[in-house]
Structure formats: structure tokens, C-alpha cells
Write a structure and sequence with these properties.
With about 150 residues, the protein is mainly α. The chain has one domain. It is built from six helices and no strands. The longest helix is centred in the last third of the chain and has 29 residues. About 30% of the residues are buried.
Length: about 150
Amino acid sequence: MNASRKISWLWIVIGICVIVALNKTITEGFLANSIAVAFEAGDMGTVWLYLGLGTVVSYGLGGAFVGIVSPGETITEPAIAAVLAALMNNLSFYIANPEAVDAAGMATVLGYAAVSAALGFGGAIIGERIQGDNTDKMRERGELPPL
């Protein structure tokens, strides 16, 4: 990515929307019954496994989606979008469950945000590779004259 290139807030917002929609669809749609059954059985390992699976898929695919469809080299935007989406997902949980707010919960939020950023960044790298070279990327690298 060209150092002079500015961050595109449009692609950050698009990334947030895609990631949150994927995360909610996966965890509250496809996996909701499995998570509820595991939770009622007291099998928290399985609950965390399903939530982790939902996180990996939603943040990785969200980052890849932005990497594929955005013009130019946009690796940073999906990582920022992933962190903001993670914070939004956690904030919605803590608003619904204020009794869960404590030091361990905040550490979990920060860890989740870091892992989410890594997943979004990794997805973006994969998306950029899938997209291949285009004129926007070549202009950013200085291989073509600006418009």
C-alpha cells in the first residue's frame, strides 16, 4: 500500500456492516440452537467453540470481501473495520448484560478486538490476492500516471 494513500472510511463502514451482519447471521442464526443446547448442558467448551467458529468465519470472510471488492490496495481498512465491529459486538453484549462488566470482561474485549483485527487483516490479504492487480493498485504504486 502506498504510504501517501489515505484510509477510506467508506470501506471501513462497509467492512463493519458486512462483518456484523455475517457474525449475527452465523451466531444468532445458523449456530443459535447448537449454542443454546451446549449452554443448557453446561458444555461451555462447545459454546466457545461455536462462538470462535462464528468469529473466524465472519471476520475472515468480511475482511476477504472488502479486500476483493474494494478498489486499490485496502489492507488496513478491513483490520480497522474488524476492530470496530468487535467493539460494537461486545458493547451490545455489555449493554444487554451490565453485570458482566468487570476487569476480566474488559480484557476479553481487548483480546477479542486484537484477534478480530488479525482475522480481518488476514482476510483482506487473501481478498487482495484473489482480486489480483488492477489499475487502481498500479496507480498507487506509481506504475501508472494518476488520473
